[in-house]
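Sorry to interrupt, but I need a hand with the structure work. Can you supply me with one protein entry, sequence and fold together? No commentary is needed, just the two lines. Leave the record below and I will have a look.
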Amino acid sequence: MAESNFVDYVKIYCRSGKGGRGSTHFRREKYIPKGGPDGGNGGRGGNIYLRGNSNYWTLLHLKFERHILATSGGGGSGGRSTGKDGMDKYIDVPCGTVVFDAETGAFICDVTKDGQVVTMLKGGRGGLGNSNFKTSTNQAPRFAQPGEPFQERKVIMQLKLLADVGLVGFPNAGKSTLLSVVSAAKPKIANYPFTTLEPNLGIVAYRDNRSFVMADIPGIIEGASDGKGLGLRFLRHIERNSLLLFMVQGDVDDIKKEYEILLNELVKYNPELLTKTRVLAITKSDMLDEELIEALSEDLPDVPYVFISSITNFGILELKDLLWKELTRETFHEVEKIVHKDLDLDELPTDLEDFEIPVVEEEDYEFEEYDESAEYDWTADENAPKD
């Protein structure tokens, strides 16, 4: 995937269809005087659905489709014929997509599984035709219900990558190099900070044809939770990872202090990240001898750790064993229990520009006669159609 094609934020406008108006038709046939009302009901408006699709890895396909509009229901007609239902609209999104209200930042829904369908906006109900209002005292009602209006909303879709293991570390800690060694992924690798500008996924092969997914997250620096560096935009991807693999270089002055700085930035961003399983990998250990490794092991954080070198493959097999052991522990996977905090609209990327809302065009239905003296009160109508 080209670097410019990774899109993890989009802002779109969604509008469901409005319900069709009920008909005020009367039966008119030869030799059947006073046939009575036979106006049909209006069709329901189309719904807006979100659907998880594992074939998508980015929100790029929605970047240039800003308006998602469902069609309105058709009007009823004579012979108690019900109008045509509006066409539903499905929005395919990659697994891990979270939807927020663009006006308030409130959390709306979350799509995590392939094929999962979430109703985002419901179409308006169709109005009842005049045949529904015939009574012993009003045998020729000349009114019908209008269709229920549509629903509309501007939403922000945010992609949080689904992966089993997330790599957490400072720039140049060796995250991309490790991913390129243990998987077939080809992330960009260079000897300067922030080489990785977008998350990368790789499938790590393990023993007996087993595997797990690893995500390389752009480097985090101190203050990332306050908006420094690239961390703020990509910290959300870590929320999805089942296990966090902290990577600290073996040649730093204090490995424990570096680990605590990284952990502190994650907790400041979302305190619930503290409950995730953590593993520590001390990278570039090919520069360390056995005595130094033994000395460093005495002052490490209280988490499972392993010394590795991606260049020489030192400790890589032990790292895989440790990760698999943690991933297969009972009651380990807690991804679905993530509680998403509301979106802070002040922290949104500047490229989420606003756009015009399309004008609603009124459908040109033909009716014999109907009462349009006032807006219809659906809430007070005992005969309103039920969902």
